[in-house]
Design a protein that fits this description.
The chain folds into two domains: about 160 residues, Rossmann fold (3-Layer(aba) Sandwich); about 200 residues, Dehydroquinate synthase-like, alpha domain (Up-down Bundle), CATH 1.20.1090.10. The longest helix is centred in the last third of the chain and has 30 residues. It is α/β, with parallel strands linked by helices. Helices cover about 55% and strands about 10% of the residues. It has twelve helices and eight strands. The N and C termini lie far apart (about 40 Å). Nicotinamide-adenine-dinucleotide (NAD) binds next to α4, β6, α5 and α9. The site of zinc ion has 7 residues, from α5 and α9.
Amino acid sequence: MTQFKGRTQICYGENAINSLETLTGRKAFIVTDPFMVKMGFVDRVISGLERANIASSVFDKVESDPSLETVQKGTVKLLADGADLVIALGGGSAMDAAKAMMYFAYKADTSRGKPQLVVIPTTSGTGSEVTAVTVVTDTQRQMKIPLIDDLLVPDMAVLDARFTRSVPPSVTATTGMDVLTHALEAFVSTPANAFTDLYAVHAIEYVFRYLLRCYRNGDDMEARQNMLLASCMAGMAFNNSGLGVAHSVAHTLGGLFHVPHGKANAVILPYVIRFNSFDVRDRYRTIAEKLGLPSETVEQGNESLITAVRWLNTQMGIPNRIRDLGIKEDAFQDSLELMSQHAMDDMCTKTNPRRPSQRDIRQLLRKAY
Ligand SMILES: NC(=O)c1ccc[n+]([C@@H]2O[C@H](COP(=O)([O-])OP(=O)(O)OC[C@H]3O[C@@H](n4cnc5c(N)ncnc54)[C@H](O)[C@@H]3O)[C@@H](O)[C@H]2O)c1
Ligand SMILES: [Zn+2]
């Protein structure tokens, strides 16, 4: 049996933020980062909630790659506040932190019922607004821990591009490459199906059409809106199909060397396409064809796709080698064993089209370095 799940109410387009006024609840717990407060974004959310007669409190301590400690602090506050609505406002970090807080608060006291979860992404990247995934960082073990549970799927996602307008070019670039990695990994993953393909292909086409426009002109709102849709569609795809080895490696590079998630994906993706191409080269060629890239033969299609991904990276100032991420060679060599072990253990490896050995991962990492 094959299935496709999607249960988040998606509100998008002009004035999408007004959908907050349709919410019901007593008290909202807003999870965000300090930048969102400074930008006045939190005030806009509070105003929307006030119009729906919903009181609110704010937890604005989320850092990039949220730690278990932050999630724990937020969970304690959420339980003390007794909110029945959790609102995430921010990039993947704020969304994931909010999802984890909601989850642990509910598990700690199920008698209060599961709080409604509403997410407002301010980056076009993770797709966390529709996924059953949250990624928290264990700072002591220097590991990113993904948690998957259908309870984590948000009830409502508000895609209002005005919240992404202030994203600086470097973050636009790396989060956009995260979208591309989600969609490409979903398209070739072992559980890919007709529905995940639809979302994945659409997301890939949008990234190639709109990401550079967003990068070059952050005020191009048509491009911003369509990247937000691409991010969400890629999320719909991988929430059903899983991801692949690019993400497994990105998780370990993030946990050990604090490389931003999208940047790690962007660097490693071309190497993973090459590694997988033996097994799914027809699939990659299909993508190359859809993008109008040279693809007369299967080999040419695969090469064109790799070249196109590298070209996108280069246009946006993203390096194409791990060594250019500021990771010293001795530190990299010392961590090779641990990184390849973490990548093997990562759940994303299970759905990669080619089953790697630990040796394969080490080789892939060495080549990428
Ligand atoms: N849950 C999932 O399905 C999923 C999928 C992929 C990645 N992730 C996780 O998401 C996290 C990464 O999320 P991200 O890439 O969105 O980055 P992020 O949330 O860490 O944000 C990156 C930076 O951009 C800033 N920022 C965010 N919105 C902004 C705006 N509108 N204007 C200006 N600056 C803004 C943030 O303050 C932060 O400094 C990682 O922890 C990653 O592991 C989760
Ligand atoms: Zn990702």
